User: Fold DUF1272 domain-containing protein from Panacagrimonas perspica.
Amino acid sequence: MLQLRPNCECCDADLPPDSADARMCSFECTFCADCAIGVLGGRCPNCGGELLVRPRRPAALLGQYPPSTERVIKAGGCPQAA
Assistant:
């Protein structure tokens, strides 16, 4: 089950579970679209994997399968893509 983390690891922008702006890698590192595309060039700074649109959990299932409340922030921010 995906964690659906609540924020961008780069800029700490809020990313609610129904956000169309959330991007993630296969390890569930989570970023907003602006950081994923503009700053990171579509690559995760943690693993190098591609950042894709995060799936959205149906609202009717959020009570049974709640999103994560743990905020993860990359120390020192995110490096600009090469």
